Every structure is written in C-alpha cells, then in structure tokens.
Structures
1.
Amino acid sequence: MMNRGGYFQSALGGRMVASLTGLGLVGFVIFHMLGNLQIFEGGDALNGYASFLREMPILLWAARLGLLAVAVFHIATTVRLALRNRRARPVAYVVHQYRSASLASRTMALSGGLLLFFIVFHLLHLTAGLVDPSIPNRLDAQGHLDVYGKVIHAFQNPLYVAVYFAGQLVLGLHLSHAVSGSLQTLGLEHAALNRLFKTAGPAVAVLVVLGNLSIILAVFLGLIHT
Ligand code: HEM
C-alpha cells in the first residue's frame, strides 16, 4: 500500500493537490472581482468594503498568508507535474496530443507563468504603489484608504489599461482549461458530469474576465470617475 508521502508524490496525488489549490485560487479571484465590482456603487462603497476587511487584521493576514501558501503549493505542484510529463512523454505522443488538445490546455505553463508575472505586477502597482509613484495614497472623507481613487487613477492611463487587458486575456485562457480540468480530476472522470465540467471552465473564465474588464473599461471611458 502507498504511504501518504507516496500518494502526494504520485501523479494522481499531484493532480489532486494542483486541482484543490487551483480551485481555491479561483474562489479568491471570483471573491475579489465581486468585491471590486462595488466600484459601480461609488467610492464610499468600495473604500468602505476595503476598510471593513482591514478592520479585522488577524483574519485579513490569516487569509493573505493562506492565499500565499495555496499559491506556492499550486505553482510547486503544477511545475513538478509539467516536468514529469515532459520527461515521460515520447515525442510522437506529444504531436498526437496537440492535434486534439485545446489552445488553453496546450498553453497552461505559459499562461500560468504570465499570470504569475501579472499578479506580481498588480501587487506592486495597486497594493504597494511602487510601479507608479503618482498613484494617490490618501484617505477619503470618511477616513478610509481611497482604493477607489487608486483604481480610477490607474485605468485613466492607457498603458495600465493595456497591461490589465492583457492580464485578463491570460487569466481567461488559464481559467477556461484549469477549472474544467480540476473538476474532472476531483470528479474522477464522472461520465454524467463531464459535459457540465467542460462547460464550467469557459463559463467561469468568461464571467470573471467580463467582470474585471467592465471595471477597466468603465473607468477608461469615463463612465466612472472621481
Ligand atoms: C480589473 C481587475 C482588478 C482590479 C480593479 C483589482 C484591484 C485591486 C486593488 C485595488 C487591490 C488593493 C486593495 C487594497 O489595497 O485594499 C488589489 C489587491 C489584490 N489583487 Fe486585484 N484587482 C484586479 C484583478 C486581480 C486579479 C485578476 C487577481 C489575481 C489573479 C488579483 C489579485 C490581487 C491580490 C492577490 C491582491 C492583494 C490582496 C490583499 O493584499 O489583501 N487582482 N486588487
């Protein structure tokens, strides 16, 4: 019988870990998008929400550290699986697979790497304020951090609109395969559920990308402003 360490070292154990951690990260992306959509209700709503999260520092830091740990596990496991697959696969099989696999599934390593790049950029930009020194870092009339002002400032600039737009395309490509693949792994190829799982990935990807793009475009087109 395989011991627990052996299970997690195995390809199936690795896929389980990659799927569970990936779905956890998708949960964050959906939660984050829903929170950010409050920008359409105005500055008080978005800043009030952001400051509400900050009013529970222990919970907030626990969630941040948890998210970081899940992300590190996800990246480490998926990189290990990708390297293992590459070593194990004969060239002819790769060529054959490519014909039937979707663009999203063939480019998971590339889209994952680019997504990581985008997230680091995003944190340095909107959370740390290091990318653009002119980004406002002030309090609003209620004494809350003006997250609304930061987002408006960011997406009035076509350069950041282009970067975030590209980030959303990469996110959509990654999610459309990742969500379906993860559900299939956890459902262990349930024939009856397979079609549902196949549609879930692209559906989640489209919803998340449209939600995020609506914020970027609404600011850029001047529909929301300070
Ligand atoms: C239009 C799209 C997005 C907008 C407007 C946006 C906005 C923001 C803002 C304003 C913050 C800083 C919040 C604060 O300081 O209180 C933030 C943090 C963050 N964002 Fe985004 N974001 C977007 C997309 C994304 C995506 C696609 C991801 C991940 C794939 C992501 C991951 C994060 C993370 C991990 C943080 C740090 C959270 C924390 O420190 O608690 N964001 N985002």
2.
Amino acid sequence: MKTTAYVTLVATFFLMCVVRMWWTMFLLFGVALTLALVVGKNRFCSDLCPMGALQDSMGQSAAPRRRIASARWWKFLLVPLFWGATFYSTFTYHHDPPVLWVWMLRIMISMFFLAMVTQMYLGRRFFCVHLCPLRHPVLEPARRSRNHLLKKRGPA
Ligand code: SF4
C-alpha cells in the first residue's frame, strides 16, 4: 500500500468516524475530480483512494482475476443505485446531520463490503475495474474530456 493512500485512509477514518463529518465522501470525490482535471491522470486511484488502498492491503489473499463476460454491464446497475442512494439521503436528511451521517456511513460500508467480496472471489481490484461509481461515470469522462480539449488546443 502506498504511503499517501495509507494517509488518506487514516484521514478518511478520522473524519468519518471520529469527527463524524457526513460529507467526508464528497470531500474525497472533490479531491479526485480536481486531480483528474488538473493532472489528466488517475492519480487519485493510484495514489490516494482509501478504497483502493484497502483492496491493495488484502494483497495475496485476492483471488486470481476472473474473466466474466457480463461484468462490464454490472456498473449500469451499481452506479444508479449508488448515486440514487447518495443524493436521496443527502436531500432527504440534509436538515438532520446525525441521521445523514448514518446513511453516508452505510453507503460507504456497503461499497467497502462489495469491494472486499469481489476482490476475494473475482480478482484484485475487480471493484475498481468494473464497478466503481466514481471512476466510471465521473473521473474517466472528466479526464478524457480534459485531455481531449488540451489536445485540440495544441501547444501553447
Ligand atoms: S476506481 Fe474507484 S475505488 Fe478504485 S481506486 Fe479509483 S476511485 Fe477508488
């Protein structure tokens, strides 16, 4: 596990579980999107993401990577579920931070559980490759658009 990812993991735990800052996940997403737009690479995934760090920490216990033909479609189920639950909780409980915190924690733990189970049975970073609700609909399009625009503009 990279030191930077370990630091983010500890900081995420501190902010979410000690400070009880319900918007910890949004803070992480903001950092990830900013990095994708500024650097044009998936630096967040490789160096900072606490979920990636947790998957890497399993190391040798990960299953050999399995090829599942339908796996590329699974994100179309998970992504709407994740963002639906996240936005619904935020708008429904924004006036009640302790309740909202519980919902955010549930969502984060569900994603963590899914990442661990898929890593154990389907291969290393299966969640990142096929399922991540941040990478597929947000980070990848942002990174590609940024690089495409810069390429079109040409050298300054
Ligand atoms: S793909 Fe998602 S879970 Fe994996 S490292 Fe990137 S942001 Fe984190």
3.
Amino acid sequence: MSSGRADRRGTAASRGYGYRWQLAREDHLRRNPFCGGCSSPARPVLAQVVDHKTPPRLKEAKASGDPERIAAAWRLFWSRDNWQSLCTNCHSSDKQRFEKSGRQPGCGTDGRPLDPRHHWHRPG
Ligand SMILES: [Zn+2]
C-alpha cells in the first residue's frame, strides 16, 4: 500500500509509453505485422516496433511548458495515421538519420534512444 509515493515518476507511463501505449502498439503490430521500411512480399520482415512518422517531440513540448504545444504533441503521439510498423533495424537507422539532423525523437527522459539496439548503446 504505497500511496502518494513518487514511484510513478520517471516511469515509462509518464513519457506516454505506458500501459495504454503497450496495448495500442500491440494492436497496431497485429494489424500491420510487417516492417514498413524493408519488408516486401518476396521477403517479409516482421516489425517489432511502432514508430511515429512525425516525431511527437513530447519531451521538447513538455520542456517548453506551452499547453498547446504539449496537446499537439500528444495528438501526434496518439494519431494512428502517424504510426508505422518497423523492424528494429529500420527503427535504428531512422533514428540515426534524425540524429544527424540534430534531432532526437524517440528518446527517453535521460536523452538516450529508447531502442536498446540503437547504435548509441554500442561502443564504436
Ligand atoms: Zn525494416
């Protein structure tokens, strides 16, 4: 019985990647099981992640403190039109491309990419 504790702070839920996202994500992957980046009928590749085509930039929106910007970021986050199924490989290269443009979508609150296979997490 731990009520009023701060143990929910900094969890995935606070970043929008909570239980609701887990369900929505699984549902999207069921409907779109193949990678939108590299899968083809001849060589199907199963997707493992749901990526936002347009990064919602929730972190930046929250940091700005602008309620309209935050609301817009959430709308982007939950807009299924903005979702795409990707394999981890394509997901990583996608983030890499953004990284080169100086942007950092898909990052946790600690500023590191969410994808554990992201090359940031590998030496060299
Ligand atoms: Zn792929």
4.
Amino acid sequence: MSTATRPLALVIGAGGGIGRAVADHLRSNCNDCDVRGFTRESEPPIDLTLETSIEEAARSVSNGAAEICLIFVATGFLHDDAFVPERSLGQLNREHMLKSFEINAIGPALVMKHFLPLLPRSGRSVFAVLSARVGSIEDNRLGGWYSYRASKAALNQLVRTSAIELKRTKPEAICVAVHPGTTDTPLSAPFVKSGLDAQSPGPVAERLVALLGRLSKSDSGSFLDYSGATIPW
Ligand SMILES: NC(=O)c1ccc[n+]([C@@H]2O[C@H](COP(=O)([O-])OP(=O)(O)OC[C@H]3O[C@@H](n4cnc5c(N)ncnc54)[C@H](OP(=O)(O)O)[C@@H]3O)[C@@H](O)[C@H]2O)c1
C-alpha cells in the first residue's frame, strides 16, 4: 500500500499520559495506518477552549487524501494548581465547574462537531473519547467530585446523542465513550495510593487499542470500560 493511501489514526490530547501512550502504541503496532497526534503545541494545535483551533485542525486533516480509521480523544481535566475535586457541596466553585465542563464535555462535543464529518461514509471507523466510570450516575455510591462526575456524565450524553446522529449517514461508524481504568498519569497522581492501584500508561494503551479493534457497529453509542464491559449510564 502506498503511503498516500494509508488510513489515518488521529489522537487528540497526544501529549497526555494515556494519549501519548496510545499514539506510541499505534505507531509501533499499526502497520496499516499512519498516526497523527494533536496537542496544544502541535502544528496545527488543538486547544479545546478555542473552537477555531479544533475547526482548523479538522480542516488540516480533511485537506489530505487519507481516510480516517480512528479518532481517539484523550484530553481531560480533574485538578490543577487552583482546584481539587470537591468533597462536599460547600466546596463548589463556579470557575472550577466551568473549566471542568469546558474541557471534559464542551470541548469533546466541538471535536465531534468538526471531526465526525471526516469519518468515511462507508466502511468501519471508530471515534472514541476517554470518559470515566465516576461519570456513571447509577454507579455513583461515594458522592463527591461533583464537577468531574457531572462533566463526564454530560460527555456520555453527548457521545450517545452523536452516535445516534452519526448512524443516519455513516452506519458502519462507531462512536463510544471509554473508561480506561485507573492509570498512573498526572491526572490521577494525587489520588492513587503509592502507585499500587494504578496501571502504567503503556499496558493501558495496549488494552484500549485492542478494545477499539474489537468493537462493532452495534457497540456505537455505548459507555464501556477497558475490557469492553458496559458501564451503566
Ligand atoms: N488517569 C486515570 O486514572 C483516568 C481514569 C479515568 C478516566 N481518565 C480519563 O482519561 C483521559 C486522559 O487522562 P490522563 O490520565 O492521560 O490525563 P493527563 O495525563 O492529565 O492528560 C490530559 C490531557 O488533556 C489535555 N488538555 C487539558 N486541557 C486541554 C485543553 N484545553 N485543550 C487541549 N488539551 C487539553 C492535556 O494537555 P496538556 O498536556 O497540554 O496539559 C493532556 O494532554 C481524561 O479524560 C481522564 O478523565 C483517566
């Protein structure tokens, strides 16, 4: 197969712990596709808070001849220097909530707006975005983490709704939200106990890519964990 016609796998958030590992794994193991990573520093960059950057990145992909086989969104926000996940209602902070929704829900929705049209009209393709099990409303037994939980629940609804729309024009395309499992990255670092209950990103990437390879069109619109098990909404 000539380089010009090889399918293209895109990783958005390719500088993060899981995103970088997924991009590396695809580059090392996918002989049939090329891999392109987007970060806030890539050329062109993707900053989820700037729709124009998402639109321009999508245009840069659509200008090429390659067919898109995979779009993997690995961005996300849980904490920063100013915010830690809330333990109680009294800790709710408007700026923290806005940032959580902007990065975890609105940004990925705008990625779907501009990138789902790039998927081929026929033939299998996959759009997967990293969500989190704590975004499950039914599975919420511990409480807390209001902004993160609610923004991931919103993301799940956006994925489900997009999958329904996508099916009308691209019946073989698959659109899913995936929980990667606890992974040793900057996002989880303050919350894992001595690294004992977190997987390193390499094996996580391997099992995520294997999962994406097993998905069929009937999985579209699902919320799945890394093993492929359905997580309740
Ligand atoms: N790690 C876990 O245990 C775990 C568990 C469940 C779910 N997840 C989910 O998995 C995903 C990846 O998490 P991770 O553990 O790999 O975290 P990470 O290492 O902190 O990576 C997060 C990525 O999001 C990017 N990002 C943040 N704000 C952005 C913005 N405005 N525009 C573009 N990119 C932005 C970061 O870019 P910069 O590098 O430029 O900051 C970084 O690449 C997240 O959605 C997270 O919720 C992780």
